[in-house]
Design goal:
The chain is an alpha+beta fold. Helix content is about 25%, strand content about 10%.
C-alpha cells in the first residue's frame, strides 16, 4: 500500500515502504554535521575547557567584537582563499568559493564580486551589506545581537574587551575625510590596549604581529604567542573563511543551568543586573592554542597519542597544594587564588619554639584506592620558607645565588604577574604625607571641592 510521507518520516523510511527497487544518494556528512566535525574537534575543545586550558567564552567575545567591526567598516573583499587550505595562495586565484560554494557568505554583492569577478556566474553568496547598529538582547549574545560585556562585567572572560567599548552596540564614523574611523578599542596584547580605525587596520596589524611572534617562537626566542594576539588573529581567520555564515556557529544563549559552557555576567553599568549565558552553538569554531596539550603535570611518552588517556604523569610539577595545618580558631582558611591555582596563606604555618614537638595526624581514608603515595601525591615540609607557586620549577638558594624559577620562562612569569596585578587592582586614596585615607572620604572631598569651584 502507498502512503504519503508525513512530518515524522525520513526520505529513506518513505522510500523503503514503496516495495519496489530504488536507489538513493545521501550525504551523511550533512546529517551528522552537528556531532561529527573534522577530527572530533569539539570533543577535544570540551576537554580543554574542562581542564581550564581553553577559554572559549573569552574567544567568543573577541570574535563578536571584531565581527561587528567587519560588518560596519569593511572596505575590502574577503580573502580569495585556496582549495586545499583556507589561506591565500602565493600566486594565482584561490577559487575556494567555486569548489565550496556554500562555505561562506560575503558582506554584499560588490565585495563578493570584487574578490574575483570571474566567480559571479558560479553562485557567490552575499548578505545585505554593512550594519553599524546592533540590537540589545537579554536572551542571547550573538555576533550581531546583544551587548558584549567588558572587562569590568567579567574580569576573566571579557578581559580583552575594554569598558570604553560600550558593548559594541553602535559604531560612529568620526573621520572627516578618507577611510572609515570608528575608534575601535581592544586589548591587543597582554600589556597594551589599542584603538583601530577600522577592520582593515586591525587585520593588518594583527596578521603582522602574529607572524612576527610565530617566527620568534620557532626560533626559540618566545615560549608562546601572546594569547590576545592569538585570539584576534584567529577571529580574523574565521571571518575571512566563513563571512556572515559564522553567525550560525557561535553564540551565547541565556540559561538557568550552570555548566562548564556557561558564564555569569554581572553588568556593572546596570543596578543588580546579572545573567547566566552558555555556549549554545557548535564548538569547532573555537580555536585553542593548547587544544591538544596534555593536562598539567602530564606528558605523552613517545609518538602515536590519540587522546588524553595517553598522557602520563611527569612527577615534576605540583598541580595543587593544601596545608595540613588547620587555621587558628578565630580565622577561616582562605587560600589565595591565582591563574595557576591555589597557594598557601600565612595562616597555615606551624610555629614551634625550642624543644617543642609537633605531631600531625592525617586521615587519608577518603582517598580512592588507586591514589598512590609518591605517584599521585606527596607530603612536604617547608622549613622557614614559602613554597614556589604551583607548576613552577625553581632552584633552591645556595647562599650565594638567590632562589630562581626557570620554568615557566621569565617572560611568562611577568605575564602572570601583570595579569594578577590588573585583576586585583583596587582604588586607593593617599594623603599628602603618604598615609591612607578612606575611599568614601576622598570621593566626598572631591565632590565638595568640585561643587565649590562650579
Amino acid at each position: 500500500s502507498w502512503k504519503l510521507p508525513d512530518e515524522t518520516d525520513s526520505i529513506l523510511e518513505y522510500l523503503t515502504r514503496q516495495q519496489k527497487p530504488f536507489s538513493i544518494s545521501m550525504n551523511e556528512a550533512t546529517q551528522l554535521e552537528a556531532t561529527c566535525e573534522r577530527d572530533k574537534k569539539s570533543h577535544f575543545i570540551q576537554q580543554a575547557i574542562n581542564r581550564n586550558d581553553c577559554n572559549c567564552h573569552s574567544k567568543f567575545l573577541i570574535l563578536a567584537a571584531i565581527y561587528r567591526l567587519w560588518k560596519c567598516t569593511s572596505i575590502n573583499p574577503l580573502d580569495d582563499l585556496g582549495l586545499g587550505e583556507p589561506t591565500v595562495p602565493s600566486m594565482g586565484n584561490g577559487k575556494r568559493d567555486f569548489w565550496y560554494s556554500d562555505s561562506r557568505v560575503h558582506l554584499d554583492r560588490q565585495s563578493a564580486t570584487a574578490m574575483d569577478p570571474s566567480m559571479e556566474p558560479f553562485g557567490l553568496n552575499w548578505g545585505e551589506g554593512k550594519v553599524c547598529k546592533f540590537l540589545p538582547s537579554n536572551n542571547k549574545i550573538s555576533l550581531t545581537q546583544g551587548r558584549i560585556p567588558h572587562s569590568r562585567d567579567s574580569p576573566i572572560h571579557a578581559r580583552g574587551i575594554p569598558s570604553e567599548s560600550k558593548g559594541y552596540l553602535e559604531f560612529e564614523d568620526v573621520a572627516e575625510t578618507g577611510n572609515v574611523d570608528v575608534r575601535f578599542p581592544i586589548r591587543f596584547t597582554w600589556q597594551s590596549f589599542l584603538v583601530f580605525a577600522n577592520y582593515f587596520e586591525l587585520k593588518t596589524s594583527a596578521v603582522d604581529e602574529f607572524k612576527r611572534e610565530r617566527d620568534a617562537v620557532a626560533a626559540g626566542k618566545r615560549s608562546n604567542i601572546d594569547p590576545f594576539v592569538f585570539d584576534i588573529f584567529k577571529s580574523i581567520q574565521l571571518i575571512e573563511q566563513y563571512g556572515e555564515k559564522l553567525e550560525q556557529f557561535a553564540y551565547l544563549e541565556a540559561t538557568n543551568t550552570s555548566s562548564s559552557l556557561s558564564i555569569e555576567l554581572s553588568y556593572v553599568d546596570a543596578k543588580n543586573s546579572s545573567a547566566l549565558y552558555a555556549l549554545a552553538g557548535r564548538l569547532d569554531w573555537c580555536e585553542c592554542e593548547n587544544i591538544l596539550k596534555c593536562p598539567n603535570g602530564t606528558a605523552t611518552s613517545g609518538v602515536g597519542a590519540k587522546g588524553m588517556n595517553d598522557c602520563v604523569s611527569t612527577n615534576e610539577e605540583v598541580i595543587h597544594r593544601i596545608s595540613l595545618i588547620p587555621p587558628p580558631p578565630d580565622e577561616i582558611a582562605k587560600p589565595m587564588s591565582t591563574g595557576e591555582g591555589s597557594i598557601d596563606t600565612d595562616s597555615s604555618r606551624l610555629v614551634l619554639k625550642p624543644f617543642e614537638t609537633g605531631i600531625l595526624t592525617v586521615d587519608l581514608s577518603m582517598l580512592p584506592n588507586n591514589i598512590t603515595y609518591n605517584d599521585h601525591y606527596r607530603i612536604s615540609i617547608y622549613d622557614g620558607c614559602q613554597p614556589c607557586p604551583l607548576r613552577y620549577k625553581c632552584n633552591a638558594s645556595n647562599g650565594h645565588q638567590p632562589k630562581t624559577c626557570f620554568n615557566p620562562p621569565l617572560e611568562r612569569q611577568y605575564e602572570f604577574l601583570n595579569g594578577c596585578l590588573k585583576k586585583n587592582r583596587k582604588m586607593v586614596c593617599l594623603r599628602d604625607d603618604g598615609t591612607h585615607e578612606d575611599i568614601q572620604k576622598c570621593y566626598s572631598k572631591t565632590n565638595n571641592s568640585s561643587s565649590a569651584r562650579s
